[in-house]
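Box S1 | Example of a co-folding query
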Amino acid sequence: MSAKITFYSGVGSVTGANFLLELGKTRILVDCGLIQGDRVAMKENRNPFEYDPASIDMLFVTHAHLDHVGRIPKLVKDGLKGSIYSTLETRALAELILEDAVGLLAKEALVEGILPMYDMEDMKKAFSLWKTIPYHTETNFESENFSIYLKDAGHILGSSMFQFSYDNKKIIFTGDLGNSPTPLLKDTEAVTGANFMIMESVYGDRNHEPKNERREKLQKVIEETITKNGTLIIPAFSIERTQVILYEINKLVESKMIPSVPVYVDSPLAIKVTDVYKESENLFNEKAQVEIKAGDDVFNFPKLFFTDSASSSREIDHAKSPKIIIAGSGMSVGGRVIHHEEKYLPDARNTVLLVGYQTLGSIGRRLMDGAKKISIHGNEVQVKARIDSILGYSSHKDSDHLVEFVSTAQESLKQVFVLMGEPKASTFLAQRINNEVGVKATYPDRGVPYELK
Ligand SMILES: [Zn+2]
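Box S1 (continued) | Returned holo structure for zinc ion
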């Protein structure tokens, strides 16, 4: 059976993953993500797909981040009839993420005076096609002559690597790869026996700060803000980062490493996602599972408040400091965190703690780069608060660990395709894999079919 792969987006950019695998006559898509970034990138999402969605037999989804699922309702709107497959947890999280996206797209459409890219109806149709498959079970697609096996990628809850087997050959799509070991999730599983690998490279050219320092640093920042009687703001992504930070604060509070102060999770989406996490403890790592079995509610501790409604969110301002506010978005582009930044940035007693990647042009990035004043809602805001960051909580493997990950599969690998990173990161990683692992690594061209032989 012939095998061919074409990378439609997610090449030379972190976001917008969308790959077409053709096994014989079967046309398989892996991920259909939103292209994120500046306005030009946002417009690109509205362009027609470069293939006919109606010609696609099935879509496999590695995980629920918007840059991997964000264009699925558009794909359905434009003609997809085939089934969509993912883990149960990815499906549950994608439902929350896409519902949120429908709201954001409707707002954007109103401002621009255009029709939204898709609406709730398209989203519902997508979920009527969406089936779930478990980890660690060979699922056979007999009439198409291939099978699929899911391994844990350790990136966010439900994240999986997809291994396609046909004619005694194996192709693996990594999706995004977790920064293992992480506080909550299981480690990324090793890959053996794969002949072709399609892998991510967000941090292909950089290494993270050591992981063992992250909790101590978090403790120190919290303590110092409390001592100043200030407010600590932590902009956090709704999936994974919010739950990890909650888990860490739970640990610090219960072991009395920090004084007990009010902690607010101020994001309706993050609150719903946390509920999905609570139902999926079986996917946590052993340490976390043992703690839960021993009776610890790892996402709950005294003085923790989930502020779902807009009115309860506003009440946070009236609560006395010291206090901690965890809110989205993670890069301070929209979301409730911006209101808090507007209020708390001008006071030197407060701290904004950045715990994730901050894209160029975002408020988060400008704070990280040391801006002394920023514009929020058209107002000039003085930055007197302390700005700090902990990058050890990243949910992606760094350069050294990506190389190490590929090394474990070195024996059977014929070729690695390096994607889902800025060009500099992808090409650097491809070079490292060529030189250090001795496997042919390719930074592919967009829209060009590659024969897998
Ligand atoms: Zn991701």
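Residues 63, 65, 155, 176 surround zinc ion (CB under 6 Å). The first strand starts at residue 3 and ends at 9.
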